[in-house]
Known about the structure:
Layout (H helix, E strand, L loop, with lengths): L18 H16 L3 H8 L3 H7 L12 E11 L4 H12 L2 E7 L6 E11 L3 H12 L4 E9 L1
Antiparallel strand pairs: 1-3, 1-4, 2-3
Helix pairs in contact: 1-2, 4-5
Protein name: UPF0735 ACT domain-containing protein Ilyop_0677
Pfam family, one: ACT
InterPro entries: ACT-like_dom_sf (IPR045865), ACT_dom (IPR002912), UPF0735_ACT_dom-cont (IPR008310)
Amino acid sequence: MSKKEKREYYIVDKRILPNSIQNVIKVNDIVQLEKISKYEAIKRVGISRSTYYKYKDFIKPFFESGKETVFSVYMSLEDKPGVLARILDVVADTGMNILTITQNIPIDRTSKVTISLQTNEDMLRKIEAMLENITGLEGVKDLRVIGSN
């Protein structure tokens, strides 16, 4: 990347990434979880070393370790009683601090909600599970993480 090129960052669902990028993520996960060498993990995943080293510096987990993280979740919800309450129960069970909740007036029986959450490094691994639990709730049409610090 030249010095004149401006870096741009995106939040992308891992499922749409090419296999080579997903394999680099797998290597990083194996190295971190199993405490083995990168070389061993690369062999296990079955990618070339050149592919790994080409992309490794450009891939970071969204919820990387840090002291505190604030992030926002945007959701489309069915306009039914109790949907938001069930979401808040899932968040409360995770122990995260809700900073703001913004809910728009429903249009076509769909409400748009943005929740800003604060978490600490002890909870970072619970976030993905929490988001999956929310996505699986009845009445949740769409969920997107729209930002973090």
